[in-house]
Inverse folding.
């Protein structure tokens, strides 16, 4: 079973890496861009669509607001990218927003940011994979019919790829990421050429559909609220920017400069694609309904609404289906791979939080391939849960999204403002002060923009599902606080013990548990005698009079130099009488140490574990809670364990003792 599990692990993960290979896994900018920026670049595949879907509630006339909303989203993105370029230069350890908040605002605000980012990373995976299922479903109906299954399978595939290591997954993702960028930019460019150069008219398949309003949304506060809600949905295009600040340690040196340059490239590409898709949506007249069955009154029977990307590709590349398939294929693929941003950000942040004792320590260590394997597994598990619960519906998941993103954005930017204020108090060089003032102004502008968006998001999305995200953040905050208290309490106890007088035990009272006279018992007795305890006795529990009399007779016959003590058990228990006996020994001599030797079988098959050692496990589990009691397992290897025994090295005397034959020794040699 162990060999089978190891073989399966090697098949999925690969051969383990030595720790000194960590430097070889660092990423150049050309690989770091698809690894860390695939999420913000790919979010343009659904952010423009979400703007139109939200505006559709007020009817087709509300689409006139889409260009202005897109421009405001682009302005916010510019502010965020410019601000985070200051972040990654100032904080290169990989803590990102969490480190900025923790250093400049204190521990509690750092935990707020940490909990927000953890929730956001899980939602990044869920939203990206669900959007991928919708886009792939536009050309493959079988995927549209089984969106949840497709999404779960994609998450598991990403998990396996990331377990193989950051550099390996980045190299794998680079080609489809760049192919997606080429496809979208090529579609925008060709569409612009057809409109402005050739003067052609491009019409989306839904351009002639009549879109009716749901209720009254075109007047007063209702219209303002709807536009703000569309803006908050479109702001999903900014998600993923923070991943680069958390992934700075994965960049090659100079880390801060390379991360800042990657941010700049990512921002330029994402803004161009975002605005270009809104432009194409306007010139093609694409119509998307929040409720197609009721809002599209002249659509054909059985009409299945396609994604915005699918409609634009068909309109721009009319008569050239290979280009349409190219765009849709790589859009679906990049949306799957966009989740990789979270697969790099979540484990890195989890490791830092674990190092600060806010999360279990298992999240801090790297796996066989120098990736944070436990963090990757945690992320995939929670993402699968969300996809199943919300049935891979992007519109439902998007309501939970971006709350955590903009909360971390806002707190981080305010922290950077305090960071520059602190440095300016001691800096005297005029040139350095000018650079700091410029950076401070950029972060202040970013704080104003992201804070404004956060308020809009909270107002417009709270009742629609954002409250779930806030509750999740509060739960994670409380959980991390409780974990830190636990680790602090344990640390205080362990260090307090160092202040106590170092008094050695008066005596060692050794007990060998005996059920019958056989080789494991003899080995346990021999080992117990070799430790030279002050008192040594064998103990058996009388659960059957006949068996106990036979054991006592055999004990006398073998003439063991150790007395056998029989403990009565009228209710045929084993664990309780042994515990009571050990407690009495401790009570009579509190300064003595009681050492209990338990013979155990070592088996080679999983099913044999069900047939052996159950009493020993129960006893060990209970004895470990007894103060002043040491528990020692004395193993006896059964024949079935020979197949898992390391036979490459034979100890001197093993052949003479009969543990190996000479033929076996020769074969191994």
């Amino acid at each position: 079973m162990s060999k089978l599990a190891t073989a399966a692990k090697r098949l999925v993960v690969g051969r383990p890496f030595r720790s000194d290979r960590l430097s070889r896994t660092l990423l150049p900018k050309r690989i770091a861009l698809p690894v860390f920026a695939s999420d913000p670049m790919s979010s343009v595949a659904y952010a423009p669509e979400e703007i139109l879907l939200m505006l559709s509630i007020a009817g087709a006339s509300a689409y006139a607001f889409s260009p202005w909303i897109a421009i405001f989203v682009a302005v916010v993105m510019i502010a965020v990218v410019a601000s985070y370029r200051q972040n990654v230069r100032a904080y290169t350890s990989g803590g990102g927003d969490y480190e900025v908040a923790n250093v400049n605002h204190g521990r509690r605000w750092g935990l707020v940011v940490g909990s927000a980012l953890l929730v956001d990373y899980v939602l990044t995976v869920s939203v990206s994979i669900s959007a991928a299922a919708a886009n792939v479903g536009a050309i493959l109906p079988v995927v549209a019919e089984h969106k949840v299954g497709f999404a779960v399978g994609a998450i598991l595939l990403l998990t396996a790829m990331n377990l193989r290591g950051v550099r390996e997954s980045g190299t794998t993702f680079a080609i489809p990421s760049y192919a997606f960028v080429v496809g979208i930019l090529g579609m925008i460019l060709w569409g612009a050429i057809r409109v402005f150069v050739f003067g052609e008219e491009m019409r989306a398949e839904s351009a002639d559909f009549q879109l009716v309003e749901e209720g009254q949304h075109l007047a007063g506060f209702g219209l303002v609220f709807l536009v703000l809600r569309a803006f908050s949905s479109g702001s999903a295009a900014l998600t993923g920017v923070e991943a680069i600040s958390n992934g700075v340690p994965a960049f090659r040196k100079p880390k801060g400069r390379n991360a800042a340059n990657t941010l700049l490239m990512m921002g330029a590409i994402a803004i161009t694609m975002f605005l270009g898709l809104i432009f194409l949506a306007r010139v093609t007249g694409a119509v998307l309904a929040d409720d197609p069955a009721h809002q599209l009154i002249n659509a054909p029977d059985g009409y299945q609404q396609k994604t915005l990307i699918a409609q634009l590709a068909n309109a721009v590349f009319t008569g050239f289906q290979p280009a349409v398939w190219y765009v849709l294929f790589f859009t679906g693929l990049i949306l799957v791979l966009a989740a990789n941003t979270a697969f790099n950000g979540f484990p890195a942040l989890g490791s830092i939080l674990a190092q600060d004792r806010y999360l279990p320590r298992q999240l801090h260590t790297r796996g066989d391939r120098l990736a944070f394997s436990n963090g990757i597994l945690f992320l995939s598990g929670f993402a699968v849960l969300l996809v199943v619960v919300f049935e891979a519906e992007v519109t439902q998941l998007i309501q939970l999204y971006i709350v955590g993103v903009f909360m971390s954005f806002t707190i981080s930017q305010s922290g950077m403002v305090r960071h520059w204020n602190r440095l300016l108090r001691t800096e005297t060089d005029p040139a350095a002060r000018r650079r700091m003032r410029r950076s401070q102004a950029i972060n202040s502008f970013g704080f104003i923009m992201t804070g404004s968006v956060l308020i809009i998001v909270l107002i417009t999305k709270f009742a629609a599902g954002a409250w779930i995200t806030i509750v999740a953040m509060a739960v994670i905050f409380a959980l991390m606080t409780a974990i830190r208290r636990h680790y602090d309490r344990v640390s205080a106890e362990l260090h307090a013990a160092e202040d106590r007088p170092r008094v050695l035990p008066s005596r060692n009272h050794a007990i060998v548990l005996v059920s019958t006279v056989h080789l494991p018992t003899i080995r346990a007795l021999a080992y117990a005698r070799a430790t030279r305890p002050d008192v040594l006795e064998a103990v058996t529990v009388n659960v059957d009079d006949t068996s106990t009399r036979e054991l006592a007779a055999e004990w006398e016959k073998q003439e063991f130099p150790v007395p056998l003590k029989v403990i009565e058990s009228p209710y045929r228990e084993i664990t309780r009488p042994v515990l009571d006996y050990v407690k009495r020994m401790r009570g009579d001599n509190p300064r003595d140490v009681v050492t209990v030797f338990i013979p155990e079988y070592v088996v080679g098959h999983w099913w044999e574990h069900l047939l052996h050692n159950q009493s020993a496990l129960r006893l060990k589990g209970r004895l470990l809670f007894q103060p002043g009691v040491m528990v020692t397992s004395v193993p006896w290897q059964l024949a079935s364990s020979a197949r898992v025994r390391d036979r490459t090295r034979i100890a001197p005397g093993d052949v003479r003792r009969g543990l190996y034959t000479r033929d076996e020794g020769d074969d191994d040699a």
